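Fig. S4 source data, part A: sequence.
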Amino acid sequence: MSAQLTTARKQLSQIRSLLRQGKVMPAAQAYHSALVAVLKNPLMKSEKEEFERLLEDAAHHMNNDAELRKVFPLTISYKPGNEREVLDVVASLLKALEEAAVAEAQEQLKMLEVRKTEELERGQRMLDGHQYEDAQAHFRALVSQFNDDPQLKGEIGDRFLKAGRYEEAFEYLAQALDESPESVHLYNRIGIALRKLGKFEVAEKYYFKASKYTGNDPHLFFNLGRLYVDWGKWDRVAKAAGMALKLKPDFTEAEKMLKFALKKQ
């Protein structure tokens, strides 16, 4: 017996066990793979009889599996000689299982997004009520559940930023940026948080990093100018405001910033 047929025999023998474990997709894949091997390889009479029995038994177990029937109501009517017809039916079964798996995954993702939104709003209510310690504990627990979601961390950071809680804002924004360094808007948010904390040199470094990703954002240079205003670096204020105006000539706030900086100089 060839190696392919030996594998096919093993696959067919495992189908009942796979179904008992709720592994419908692996069971269908095993049947399909084994049937392909049977069709491709010449069989001795004893081998042919053995595989006919194995294929019929496996089809019986699949036809009587409740979970499989929910997804695929058609019966796998195996009889010796109709292997190719059965192969088409099993191929349809696999397609139906794949579509069901995709639909289930999409539904789960949708439910997770709904849950995240609800938990974000719950935390926001704590922030609105100035329950900052409770909000921090709540958001940390939420992040631990969705640890690989930089967008969520950035959203939490934004909420702390708007609440005037700059240390917490920096904590979450920095985590988000570490995982998604191409997200330029995060550099801006971090820069604002650090400026409010008086950490001017660190904030400047973040703005410079952001400029490497996009040198054509006038608001980036305007926010850099605001950093220099708080820092009292008036020559740098003028330069940043000038860059913002070069990119956006009708940027009224940047024009005011430039005039103010020139007066201070």
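Fig. S4 source data, part B ends here. Residues 54 and 197 are 72 Å apart (CA to CA).
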